[in-house]
Amino acid sequence: MTTSDQLDAARRGDRRTLARLLSSIERGDAASHDINRTVFSQVGGAYTVGLTGAPGAGKSTLTSAAVASARRRGERVSVLAIDPSSPFSGGALLGDRTRMNDHALDDGVFIRSMATRGHLGGLALATREAIRLLDAVGFPWVLVETVGVGQVEVEVAGAADTTVVVVNPGWGDAVQANKAGLMEIADVFVVNKADRDGASQTVHDLESMLDLTRGSGSEGWRPPVVATVGTTGEGADALWDAIGTHRDHLVATGDLDRRRQQRLREELALVVEQRIRAEAEARLGAAAREQIERDLLAGSLDPWSAADRILGDR
Predict the structure, then answer these.
(1) CA separation for the pair 262, 50 (Å, rounded)
(2) pTM assigned to the model
(3) Cβ of 126: how many Cβ atoms within 10 Å?
């Protein structure tokens, strides 16, 4: 079956075929290159939403509630749940995503867990490619949920049009927020588990931080702060409304096109990096690379000279 045939099957609702296409992209194998070339001109403008926040913030439960809100409005939604990779199996540690099982039988929802596995470009590139594939097979909304707020998660969330940062009551002070870079990447803040003590204070603290650090907001947008209870769905409609309002703002100001163009530039850099690494590995061979690494660890070779040898410059 050709790539075009597989894409046609996925558009008709064949989830097994779609899962196989995503697995190829996740591995970053030769077939994934053909998939990416084929779908690039077939994208229909799906809107992407990244959800990130500290572990335990209730992102999976909140994502499920957001999906339910979207479905009540008749929207078809896909979810990429970005998980850490097991160092033993290479699989996703949180791959079951049991909190999203409510949507398992809904034909209008597709949920996929992704891990780093063997992808040379890492999650940053694989996520962009997976988003494009889901767009090409007809999903108008793609939600990208990360497991934490490390550098990888921030980069993955940055692949989205709207980035939602999820925090809990008693979340911490402004210094911690700025260290995590969350004030810079957030388009929408969510105080989840808002039925707990301290929720109102956390909302107030975030509003105060926004007053101090962003004023009227970057590019005319001030991130709203939405209170939610993911387990009951309370506030999910308000969150979906906030996402829609941000999308309207990006469209009206032209920032949506600018953001997407910048992401394409970043993706080009990631693809070039991936290709250079793959070609260097193929040309050098395992034995030569191991010798270079031994010399590096022994202190007889510095990292820059080692890189020159790997790239064939010396």
Answers:
(1) 16
(2) 0.85
(3) 28
**Coil, strand or helix at 142:** strand
Residue 284: how many other CB atoms lie within 10 Å: 17
Lowest mean pLDDT among 44-53, 156-165, 210-219, 227-236: 210-219
Give per-residue pLDDT as tens, 129-148. Answer: 999 999 999 999 999 998 76
Q: Where are the domains of the chain?
A: 44-253, 269-311
CB 177 within 8 A of CB 214: no
CB 82 within 8 A of CB 123: yes
Q: How many whole angstroms separate alpha carbon 156 and alpha carbon 122? A: 10
pLDDT confidence of residue 191: 95
Say how far apart CA 161 and CA 255 lie, in whole Å. Answer: 10
Sign of CA dihedral 224, 255, 53, 64: positive
Domain 44-253 falls under CATH 1.20.1250.20: no
By the 8 A CB rule, do 309 and 296 touch? Answer: no
**What CA–CA distance (Å, rounded) separates 73 from 284?**
54
Span between the terminal Cα atoms of the chain, in Å: 44
Residues 6+ apart with CB under 8 A from 116: 84, 85, 122, 123, 126
Location of structure tokens 């749940």: 81
Burial of 182 (0-12, 13-18, 19+ CB in 10 A): buried
Using alpha carbons only, give the angle 120, 121, 122 rounded to the nearest 5 degrees: 90
Tokens 């003590």 — which residue? Answer: 197
Which of 226-251 are b and which e, b meaning 16 or more Cβ less than 10 Å from the residue's Cβ?
bbbbbeebebbbebbebbeebbebbe
d(C-alpha 143, C-alpha 288), whole Å: 43
